[in-house]
């Protein structure tokens, strides 16, 4: 915990991620980065009060059916029903409780309910592709949804996005804010996808792939996939070190 | 162990915006100001599929958060979220934050932390909004002082009729200063 000692402010700090964990902002294989990545070097920002705090957005942000994307309309959506579950953790393996998780995705045909999506797969009148939930005391979450379809895009010749669900999490500090994409095991489209492959570190890249979970797969109802999301852990503060030395 | 960042993609507008996202405080709140701006790319074109998020202290410089060592002050959400319009514009209604303690007894000038998300941005970029009204505090601010003097201006909002203007230029002439947090 943070602690004031005299006029000196001692705050927790969050570990910076190892090189290769996150994609370079300039990733030429993903063409849209060309005009959108800063060319000047980033300036190192010391983590002070604004950075070690963050919005704590919980139950007030969600409605009763927000975590079940198959029950938001009169009838069920088309496609393979799936359960997606896991934990929101910090880098030390601690679950982050009471924290908002938001997802959005394409329908079973690979089409988003968005005015800009021209892929001629049909829209599903019973599927918005939008979900929200709040983690429980152990950092657990779950969504019921439909397995999204792959879809073509214009990035390169014969370019297809692997099936994915967008995840947005806050953690408990500005330094932990993360938007990522969850992928499915053994997707044959990984090899040609510059967004998935923008992550330099192979092990880090694999952390975006969910695990098929037969234990939670329910007979005659839904396949299950497990996806843990890990945000940065805390460094031990000077204050904590001093305590340990005593 | 951290899960890697990925782009929000072109369709973030279906999942992330909230009806009350742009209003950190309700309209009509005394002292509230609109912070308006445009997000542009390296060709100077507006970015219609971006989103701005803001995080800040209240006017007394306090956070509604348990890690504020001065004690949590509940009641001020401190968080704003606004997707960009087709012309690249965004708008956040908020209160100007107070000064915030820094390291070793120093004070930080009033500021707002900003995250920018967009198609084509594989990871969010982070910047800070400072205010032109606090010239003295800005001159003493440790973070502003770590920024090359000729680029510092990109972090200082301009006064407008109903608040401030703060443009985000992801690339190109007068590229906004972005931070590694």
UniProtKB/TrEMBL annotation, chain A:
- What keywords are assigned to this protein? Dioxygenase, Oxidoreductase
Region listing for Disordered, in residue ranges: 1-32
From the UniProt record, list the coiled-coil ranges.
none
Q: Which PROSITE patterns match?
A: INTRADIOL_DIOXYGENAS
The family database entries (InterPro entries) matched by this protein are listed as: Intradiol_dOase_C (IPR000627), Intradiol_dOase_core (IPR015889), Intradiol_RC_Dioxygenase (IPR050770), PCDO_beta_N (IPR024756), Protocat_dOase_b (IPR012785)
**Domain (Intradiol ring-cleavage dioxygenases) ranges:** 84-112
Return the EC number: 1.13.11.3
A Gene Ontology MF term for this entry? Answer: protocatechuate 3,4-dioxygenase activity
User: One Pfam family for this entry, by name?
Assistant: Dioxygenase_C
In the record, the note on similarity to other proteins reads:
Belongs to the intradiol ring-cleavage dioxygenase family.
Protein name in the entry: Protocatechuate 3,4-dioxygenase beta subunit
TrEMBL record, chain B:
Superkingdom, natural source: Bacteria
UniProt cross-references to InterPro entries, sorted A to Z: Intradiol_dOase_C (IPR000627), Intradiol_dOase_core (IPR015889), Intradiol_RC_Dioxygenase (IPR050770), Protocat_dOase_a (IPR012786)
- The UniProt record lists the EC number as 1.13.11.3
Task: Provide the leader sequence positions.
Answer: none
Select a single GO molecular function from the record's annotations and give it. protocatechuate 3,4-dioxygenase activity
What the entry lists under SUPFAM superfamilies is as follows: Aromatic compound dioxygenase
A Pfam family this chain is assigned to: Dioxygenase_C
Q: Which UniProt keywords apply?
A: Dioxygenase, Oxidoreductase
* Domain Intradiol ring-cleavage dioxygenases: start-end pairs: 17-172
Of which family is this protein a member? Belongs to the intradiol ring-cleavage dioxygenase family.
PANTHER family (UniProt xref): DIOXYGENASE, PUTATIVE (AFU_ORTHOLOGUE AFUA_2G02910)-RELATED (PTHR33711), PROTOCATECHUATE 3,4-DIOXYGENASE ALPHA CHAIN (PTHR33711:SF9)
Q: What is this protein called?
A: Protocatechuate 3,4-dioxygenase alpha subunit
Q: Tell me which species this is from.
A: Amycolatopsis viridis
């Amino acid at each position: 915990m943070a602690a004031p000692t005299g006029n000196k402010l001692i705050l927790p700090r969050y570990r910076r991620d190892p090189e290769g964990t996150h994609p370079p902002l300039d990733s030429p294989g993903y063409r849209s980065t060309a005009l959108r990545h800063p060319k000047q070097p980033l300036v190192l920002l010391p983590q002070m009060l604004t950075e070690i705090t963050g919005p704590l957005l919980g139950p007030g942000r969600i409605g009763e059916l927000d975590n079940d994307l198959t029950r938001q309309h009169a009838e069920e959506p088309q496609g393979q029903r799936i359960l997606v579950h896991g934990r929101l953790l910090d880098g030390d393996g601690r679950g982050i409780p009471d924290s908002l998780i938001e997802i959005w995705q394409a329908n079973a045909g690979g089409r988003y309910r968005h005015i800009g999506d021209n892929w001629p797969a049909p829209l599903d009148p019973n599927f918005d592709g939008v979900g929200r939930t709040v983690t429980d005391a152990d950092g657990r979450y779950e969504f019921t949804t439909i397995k999204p379809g792959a879809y073509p895009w214009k990035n390169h010749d014969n370019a297809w996005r692997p099936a994915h669900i967008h995840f947005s999490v806050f953690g408990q500090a500005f330094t932990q804010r993360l938007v990522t994409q969850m992928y499915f095991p053994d997707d044959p489209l990984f090899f040609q996808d510059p967004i998935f492959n923008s992550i330099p570190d192979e092990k880090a890249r694999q952390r975006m792939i969910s695990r098929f979970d037969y234990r939670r797969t329910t007979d005659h109802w839904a396949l299950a996939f497990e996806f843990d999301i890990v945000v940065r852990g805390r460094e031990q503060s000077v204050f904590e070190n001093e305590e340990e030395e005593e | 162990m951290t899960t890697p960042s990925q782009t929000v993609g072109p369709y973030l507008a279906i999942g992330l915006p909230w009806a009350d996202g742009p209003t950190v405080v309700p309209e009509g709140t005394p002292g509230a100001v609109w912070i308006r701006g445009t997000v542009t790319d390296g060709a100077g074109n507006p970015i219609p599929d971006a989103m701005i998020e803001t995080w800040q202290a209240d006017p007394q410089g306090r956070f509604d958060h348990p890690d504020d060592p001065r004690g949590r002050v509940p009641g001020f959400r401190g968080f704003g979220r606004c997707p960009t319009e087709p012309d690249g514009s965004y708008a956040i209604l908020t209160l100007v934050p107070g000064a915030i303690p820094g390291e070793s007894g120093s004070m930080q000038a009033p500021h707002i932390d900003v995250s920018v998300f967009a198609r084509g941005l594989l990871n969010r970029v982070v910047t800070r909004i400072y205010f032109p009204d606090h010239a003295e505090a800005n001159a003493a601010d440790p973070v502003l002082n770590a920024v090359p003097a000729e680029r510092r201006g990109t972090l200082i909002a301009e006064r407008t009729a109903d608040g401030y203007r703060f443009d985000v230029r992801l690339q190109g002439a007068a590229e906004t200063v972005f931070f590694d947090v």
